[in-house]
Specification:
The complex is a heterodimer of chains A (117) and B (110). Chain A is mainly beta. By secondary structure, chain B is an all-beta fold. Chain B is globular, with a radius of gyration of 13 Å. The chains are: A mainly beta (117), B mainly beta (110).
Chain lengths: 117, 110
């Protein structure tokens, strides 16, 4: 079945530094990938839609200059949290679709736990 | 008002029990309804997907959608300790952007 690989699974960084999270579709091509953020005991909130070869679409309230998204190939999207602060500490999850090849098709990565100290 | 409401629980049941998980929603335009299971520190995995109204069964899992009441349910029969996880409902207008519930934490006690 469709597999989405996300790395790293966890990261601790100092306040003010930048962190890059990778999301790869391993056995299918994904023209669109989605980035979510999940705070403890809260819903997954869509942050942005990543489109291969074009600019990402950000949800209202998400700073595009702080959360940089690059989708340079059909199998890789990256999210860079720039100048991270403790309030950015969260669980970041990507998802991608194999367009119906598998059970409606949206597969999630295993998530990245970001802690900013 | 949130788009999707889900009781966070926690819910604790004995092994073998029937579990009922529910979500309500406010927007009648939702057409796609999904249930995901999420283990601790992992990404969600799709359990059930339903388009529009009706029931869908897959093994021990049954998903129901009642669009007139804006209410969806997931039933787990013969619950097992391995079913212990957080269950998230999700809905979509278009099949692309999803609105998630907060998740219900379930523990099945052996």
């Amino acid at each position: 079945g469709a597999v989405v690989s996300q790395h790293p699974s966890w990261v601790i960084c100092k306040s003010g530094t930048s962190v890059k999270i990778e999301c790869r579709s391993l056995d299918f091509q994904a023209t669109t990938m989605f980035w979510y953020r999940q705070f403890p005991k809260q819903s997954l909130m869509l942050m942005a839609t990543s489109n291969e070869g074009s600019k990402a679409t950000y949800e209202q309230g998400v700073e595009k200059d702080k959360f940089l998204i690059n989708h340079a190939s059909l199998t890789l999207s990256t999210l860079t949290v720039t100048s991270a602060h403790p309030e950015d500490s969260s669980f970041y999850i990507c998802s991608a679709s194999d367009h119906g090849a598998t059970n409606y098709g949206y597969t999630f990565g295993s998530g990245t736990r970001l802690t900013v100290v | 008002q949130k788009e999707v409401e889900q009781d966070p629980g926690p819910l604790s049941v004995p092994e073998g029990a029937i579990v009922s998980l529910n979500c309500t929603y406010s927007n009648s335009a939702f057409q796609y309804f999904m249930w995901y299971r999420q283990y601790s520190r992992k990404g969600p995995e799709l359990l059930m997907y339903t388009y529009s109204s009706g029931n869908k069964e897959d093994g021990r899992f049954t998903a129901q959608v009642d669009k007139s009441s804006k209410y969806i349910s997931l039933f787990i029969r013969d619950s097992q300790p391995s079913d212990s996880a957080t269950y998230l409902c999700a809905m979509s207008y278009t099949g692309n952007q999803f609105y998630f519930g907060t998740g219900t934490s379930l523990t099945v006690i052996p």
